TrEMBL record:
Domain Methyltransferase type: 43-129
Family: Belongs to the methyltransferase superfamily.
Any one GO biological process: methylation
Protein name per its UniProtKB record: Methyltransferase domain-containing protein
Pfam families reported in the protein's UniProt record: Methyltransf_11
Keywords of the record: Methyltransferase, Transferase
CDD domains (UniProt xref): AdoMet_MTases
One MF annotation (Gene Ontology) recorded for this entry: methyltransferase activity
Skewed-composition ranges (Basic and acidic residues): 162-179
Signal peptide annotation: none
Length: 251
């Protein structure tokens, strides 16, 4: 599978919506990543508006962030003024130092899968850590989830995971690094929590997801109206799982 470059940068069209509707990452995950990584400079790939960056910055991490979308990068700089921000694609980034941590939140799947582990390896110091993680959110109530999924399928939306059971990344039987001798200490962790979203915030969350962002604006709003009718005024309980993969560059 190659990366859909156009789809990978649709997020900047709705920066504020993205930033307010998307969930943060668990504080425990940030603690675990920083404990796993040796001390030293960290590189974030696909930092967006800084939803993960803020957590690492608050712990005093020495951060360089790569983000190709200038609108996302502007929000990132405003939120995390201490981080160095490089505007561009990771595939074109030339590191100026050896990083002891490379992390990527909700973005590693956008990096060319034929090259991303080579690029990470070239970026890391020996024993440097890589941490890639994704928030996966689903509507908790199975009946409501099925009704929302039926709307998706009527509009030909097949790639939204918001209304599907299970966590696609967690379910993969074997990790792509399992047999890569350049990496060691592979470790996968999962963090689960629940939250209640008001209907408006839920719609903003859906609007921030690339599966809906790529729809024509009128069609997207029709889908949102159908979601709103199903949710009513009560809002919706969501179950969030954050899937983290940790590995270390072998010496
Ligand atoms: C779903 S957003 C995640 C943003 C942020 N990390 C977060 O957790 O909210 C994906 C981000 O990856 C960025 N991106 C897409 N392709 C990229 C690439 N090849 N190199 C670096 N970043 C990329 C997008 O611009 C976008 O900001």
């Amino acid at each position: 599978m190659t990366v859909d470059r156009e789809r990978s940068v649709v997020f900047g069209e709705a920066v504020e919506q993205y930033d307010s509707a998307r969930p943060d990452y668990p504080a425990q995950l940030i603690t675990d990543v920083l404990e796993y990584a040796p001390p030293g400079p960290a590189l974030e790939v696909g930092a967006g508006t800084g939803k993960a960056t803020a957590g690492f910055a608050a712990r005093g991490a020495d951060l360089t962030c790569i983000e190709p979308d200038p609108r996302m990068a502007a929000a990132l700089t405003a939120k995390c003024p201490g981080a160095r921000v490089e505007i561009g694609f990771f595939e074109a980034y030339v590191p100026d130092r050896a990083f002891t941590l490379l992390y990527s939140a909700q973005a590693w799947h956008w990096i060319d899968e034929r090259r991303r582990w080579d690029l990470a390896h070239a970026t890391l110091a020996p024993s440097g850590a890589v941490a890639v993680f994704w928030n996966h959110y689903v509507v908790t109530d199975p009946d409501l989830r099925a009704a929302l999924a039926a709307v998706d399928s009527r509009y030909g939306v097949t790639t939204s995971s918001m209304h599907r059971d299970g966590s696609p990344r967690a379910e993969r039987s074997e990790h792509e690094l399992a047999h890569d001798p350049r990496y060691t200490d592979l470790d996968q962790r999962h963090y689960t929590r629940t939250d209640r979203y008001g209907t408006g915030r839920y719609l903003d969350l859906a609007r921030s997801v690339s599966a809906y962002r790529i729809l024509a604006p009128d069609t997207r709003e029709e889908v949102m109206e159908e979601f709103a009718a199903l949710l009513g005024r009560d809002g919706v309980d969501l179950t969030f799982t954050t899937d983290l993969t940790l590995a270390r560059r072998a010496r």
